[in-house]
Amino acid sequence: xxxxxxxxxxxxxxxxxxxxxxxxDHGRSSAGDxxxxxxxxxxxxxxxxxxxxxxxxxxxxxxxxxxxxxxxxTDPAARAVVLARRSGPARxxxxxxxxxxxxxxxxxxxxxxxxLADIAADLGLDRETFxxxxxxxxxxxxxxxxxxxSRGAGVTGFPTLIAGPRADGTFMAITxxxxxxxxxxxxxxxxxxxxx
Length: 196
Fold this sequence. Notes:
Layout: E1 2-5, H1 13-19, E2 28-29, E3 36-38, H2 50-56, E4 71-73, H3 75-85, H4 89-105, H5 113-122, H6 127-133, H7 137-152, E5 160-164, E6 172-176, H8 181-195
Parallel strand pairs: 1-2
Antiparallel strand pairs: 1-5, 3-4, 5-6
């Protein structure tokens, strides 16, 4: 069984922390959406994220949003999560959590390969190998397979938590949008009971 916590418009820090508590074969970080978002005309602050902060306690800073010409492109970070996941599901989840914190709480630009490689090194991965692999054709194809899984599970927004594969090989959405842990965990447990 695989649970996927899909990067994109985040705000799921409490959920991610609890998902990490499951055994490694019950947690898998996955890539969700290849689109980039040009924020050149958007307000350069985190006001739109205020409701997520209020519900989750997640800290947000403007950081990278203020970089001239910044494009909110989740693909580099998604590829980095997939690359970290190659070292095991727990490592993929740890990378995802660190990338969330780096971007949202510390304002680091996670569209930058060097920032992503720094995060990988902080988690014990070889920085240079990580950097050399991040733009490889094979990794891009693996990440696009994750995108296909997310589309097939009906992912239309973020954050989304999916689970699978079911007996027929498909995945399904467990939650769409931010949900508190006390709502998410029973939903995961129900899904696990039905698919066991």
